[in-house]
Design a protein that fits this description.
- Keywords: DNA-binding, Transcription, Transcription regulation.
- Pfam families: FCD (PF07729), GntR (PF00392).
- This is Transcriptional regulator, GntR family.
- The protein is mostly helical.
- The protein has two domains: about 15-30 and about 35-75, Arc Repressor Mutant, subunit A (Orthogonal Bundle), CATH 1.10.10; about 80-230, GntR ligand-binding domain-like (Four Helix Bundle (Hemerythrin (Met), subunit A), Up-down Bundle).
- About 65% of the residues lie in helices and about 5% in strands.
- The chain has ten helices and two strands, in the order αααββααααααα.
- It has helices at about 15-25, 40-45, 50-60, 80-105, 105-120, 125-145, 145-160, 170-190, 195-215, 225-230, and strands at about 65-70, 70-75.
- It has a two-stranded antiparallel ribbon.
- A hairpin with a 3-residue loop joins strand 1 and strand 2 (about 70-75).
Length: about 230
């Protein structure tokens, strides 16, 4: 069985300007606050300004880009509150996907999930580990067999790209994530929807804690946001 396509994966040169800009955001080549200058982007991607302009418009419609006075288009900065809300919603949506997959996934789909996680455990390259993690989540969402849920998760995932490279570039997080996947797989194999949802929520919340720590260490939270984090529930 072929592996599921990552809906926002790394892309070769032949893909659209929009896809390639999304990929640059994912990899941290375009960081929050970076101005998106059409001439520079067109030169770097080897495209005319027209597809670049359209790509920027699409990114703005997605909520990833904003227009600032006297500056033009730039990649948005997410506030602390937005990061909290996004991860809360991710826990809800992917938790629901896990619950549905416990009921709807075929045995073949469960074996595929196990194979992906086994590859992830063996991987020692951060970029490959992150790719396999995305593939695992994409396979689970497909196994839930709900097109509207899949669409909602895809929209949320695009916004999360603003945060840059995966938390799995942290080796300790990578090992823990694979263990969390294994616990989730146990619940799926038992066809226990409630347990699968709980374990997926725990998995997302663990990633959330690492993400907040990364943002703090990188100085990407303002003083007010840092204070809010220190007094918040985490």
């Amino acid at each position: 069985m072929s592996k599921p396509a990552d809906p926002i994966a790394e892309l070769p040169q032949g893909h659209t300007a929009y896809d390639r800009l999304l990929n640059d955001i994912r990899q941290g080549k375009i960081t929050p606050g970076t101005r998106l200058r059409e001439v520079e982007l067109a030169a770097r991607l080897g495209l005319s300004r027209t597809p670049i302009r359209e790509a920027i418009r699409r990114l703005e419609a997605d909520g990833l880009v904003e227009h600032l006075p006297r500056q033009g288009a730039s990649l948005r900065r997410l506030t602390y509150a937005e990061v909290m809300e996004l991860y809360d919603m991710r826990a809800v949506l992917e938790g629901t996907a896990a619950r549905l997959a416990a009921r709807a996934a075929s045995d073949l789909e469960l074996r595929e999930l196990a194979e992906i996680n086994a590859e992830m455990i063996q991987s020692d390259a951060p970029a490959e580990t992150a790719r396999l993690n995305r593939q695992f989540h994409a396979a689970l969402i497909n196994a839930a067999k709900n097109r509207y849920l899949k669409r909602a998760i895809g929209s949320m995932a695009r916004t999360l790209l603003i945060l840059g490279p995966s938390t799995l570039h942290d080796p300790a997080r990578s090992a823990a994530a694979a263990q969390e996947h294994a616990a989730l797989l146990q619940a799926l194999e038992l066809r226990d929807g409630a347990l699968a949802e709980t374990r997926m929520r725990d998995h997302i919340e663990a990633a959330h804690r690492i993400r907040l720590r990364q943002l703090r260490d990188a100085g990407l939270m303002g003083a007010d946001e840092q204070s809010e984090r220190d007094t918040g529930p985490l």
